[in-house]
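dumping the sequnces here before i forget
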Amino acid sequence: DVVMTQSPLSLPVTLGQPASISCRSSQSLVDSDGNTYLNWFQQRPGQSPRRLIYKVSNRDSGVPDRFSGSGSATDFTLKISRVEAEDVGVYYCMQGTHWGTLTFGGGTKVEIK
Amino acid sequence: QVQLVQSGAEVKRPGASVKVSCKASGYLLASYYIHWVRQAPGQGLEWMGIIDPGGVRTRFAQKFQGRVTMTRDTSTNTVHMELSSLRSEDTAVYYCVRGDRDLEIWGQGTMVTVSS
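..and the predicted 3d for all of it:
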């Protein structure tokens, strides 16, 4: 199975400051169809996960533009340009390229300093 | 409004089985793949398996092979996930999720507690 490794585990951020989360995969996530199926999810406390980003950099409808995704092959990043209070929660990356088994990163907890 | 509505919380004894339902509203379930993902208390997300739009083909994570069944009922626009031989480590919130390579729409989750 493809192993997804996120860092950091915990990310204390000052309101209004940027935040960045790294996600690395043990294999390339470039599919034979040319797409890279790397997704980012946000899970606020007590809520179901919500998809933010699909195929590396495509924001879902309703997701603020302060969220952006980038990367290629095995190295990916989720950035929040200016953290707001509502961004507190755990963020997960997930690969859908090797979909014999979908795999998630371990999660990064974003909290306000 | 497109949403997935899951059945209520369950408490089961070790060795028993649990069946969790996931009803689609606002769209036809038969048009999309449905995944099941679980989350143990305080832990991360774990993919369990997938059922295809036709409800014919399923695929499961190796650790659940032989213990999980996923079925689709087109008459009620509902998908079911049954997990057997429950043990305490199966205590978790179970989510159904619409999507194929990218898990787009999540249900609200069903808490399953396994306790003697």
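The CA atoms of residues 38 and 94 of chain B lie 4 Å apart.
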